[in-house]
Amino acid sequence: MSKETLNFQTETSELLNLVIHSIYTHKEIFLRELVSNASDAIDKLKFLSITDKGLLEGDQDFKIEIAASKDKKVIKISDNGIGMNHDELVANLGTIAKSGSKAFMKAMKESKKQSDLEIIGQFGVGFYSAFMVAEKITVATRRAGEEKAYKWESDGKNTFVIDEIKKEKRGTEITLHIREDKENPNDEYLEEYKIRELIKKYSDYVRYPINLEVEKKDGDKTEKIMETLNSMIPIWKKNKTDVTEEEYNEFYISKFHDWEKPLMNIHIKVEGNIDYTALLYIPSRTPMDFYTKDYEKGLQLYTKNVFIMDKCKQLVPDHFRFVKGLVDSADFSLNISREILQQDRQLQSLGKNIQKKIQRELENLLKNDRKKYELFWDAFGTDIKAGIYSEYGLHKDNLKNLLIFHSTFSDDKTTLSEYVSRMTEDQKEIYYVSGEDLESLKKMPQMEAVKEKGYEVLFLNERVDEFAIRTLMEFDGKPFKSVTESNLDLEDEMEKKILEESEGENKNLLDGIQDALKDKISKVKLTNRLKSSAVCLVSGENGISFEMEKVMKDIPGQEDAVKAERILEINPSHNLFKALKSIYEKSPEEIVDYADILYNQALLVEGFQLDDPVEFSNKITNLLIKASK
């Protein structure tokens, strides 16, 4: 046949500009695309040869070869796969024009979200990524089982040329004529070290050997040999029984650049609607940047052993963002860039499967190795608790069995299920107390009546804890109850009656204290919850706790946005109350300073800062001096 020149559609120049500058983030991925295409070509030949052995032409030594010449400024990538005939050249390397470049550009420009991209697999532009580094591309190819071979050539602008050639072996050889670019030099892609680096980074686990032509010196003699760059057998494709714990750990350390072995690994192989393999790791400790804006969640993504993406966020929810690892599946739907996955049902289904597997493994760890689970919890428990209340509690039922807390039962942490199993018959609620310091929580005056009843109390000593508990609302039918709420309701009818009578008898004193603190508290009342302590603050029924107020106070611009209702409770059996009654009977006006001291004392116990510490100190000093006279 005579040489023929075919025109791209008029939009091709603009389209290729879009491919080069908009779709692909890094130029270096051109090599990944071409190697991936070569691997696909071999896959196709292997599949077709099952029913037609003649296609193999006596050659079953499948391989991909790369050769670079710095003098000629060319890179060659060849394979002995299926190859292409004339019509396939036009179709496969003219896919952009054939599929309609206007429709392609419109889809690219109008799509604002990944999920809007309905052009997966329609435009085959991976090959064209090579124009990011090449001023001209030449393709020599012969389809297996056919005699004629062809050459395709283009500078990526307006036309491409197809000519018939002689080619002995089946397969495809692509020659890139590297573009001179002073601002963004491409010469590094001709260097042996760079090719090694890119193959190791992107294509280390392609199942066929990727051989690089290198020079080997033997004395004065120099010869060219082919050196295999990729490992080909990824650890995640091996059977679990064939991989040692040490091998899993070494892979993790080298692959994810950690300095110590992981806490655990999760090796998954699934065959079903979606076939995939995953190798996941939970680090031993929190990464240094974990709570910074620079940290990115996500799993590495491979398809047919070819690296596609470093951080696929869709595969792990935020509460499992600490999980590192990779997923490999031939069933992924990839978009034109191979760098952004379409959020289709397949991907969502895969993400849910992985999430369930991680959850099950953590539940098993909690059940079978409590010590190891507590190491995990110390590092990442905050994320699990945040997952309870994130997304309006969407994940709370899945995560609630992973929660563990300190409690009054023992020095060991407890699950909610274990707590409920120890509840007495008369206990209707799960009691908790919130604060930042564990030792201070154990001494909280509000704890006294609950402990006297023999009820276990959970210690919520992280700021996210109460948000998680309030989102759960209940566990196993038992509602949660803070011991610092005003309506604790632990008294029997006789105790309530005695308390009401005492409040009536001391109404003037209580009113005097409330008048003195009218801008600070909503109510003063007597209480049975205190046994050895004289006074405490409790929150009202507006749903805002003291811990919530503290959290909101630390948010810039929200310092006064949320306030808990403050109720001052006084122990009528305490000697201090008797002293207050005596003082009030003698000098009602003096109750103002005593009331202020009581209130500030209760504030300190709750962990609040005093409005005026100097004034508080002076009042105590003056009262001590007065008492000594």
Please, could you describe this protein's structure?
There is one protein chain. The protein has a nine-stranded mixed β-sheet, with helices on one face. The chain has a six-stranded mixed β-sheet with strand order 16-15-18-17-20-19. Strands 10-11-14-12-13 form a five-stranded mixed β-sheet, sandwiched between helices. The protein has four domains: 4-228, Heat Shock Protein 90 (2-Layer Sandwich), CATH 3.30.565.10; 235-368, Ribosomal Protein S5, domain 2; 403-482, Rossmann fold; 493-628, Heat shock protein 90, C-terminal domain (Four Helix Bundle (Hemerythrin (Met), subunit A)), CATH 1.20.120. A hairpin with a 6-residue loop joins strand 15 (404-407) and strand 16 (414-415). It is 36% helix and 21% strand. Residues 97-101, 111-124 and 334-340 have low confidence and may be disordered. The longest helix has 24 residues, at 345-368. Helix 9 packs across helix 14. With 629 residues, the chain is of the alpha+beta class. The chain is elongated and about 120 Å long. It is found in: Cytoplasm. Molecular chaperone. Has ATPase activity. One of its GO terms (molecular function) is ATP-dependent protein folding chaperone.
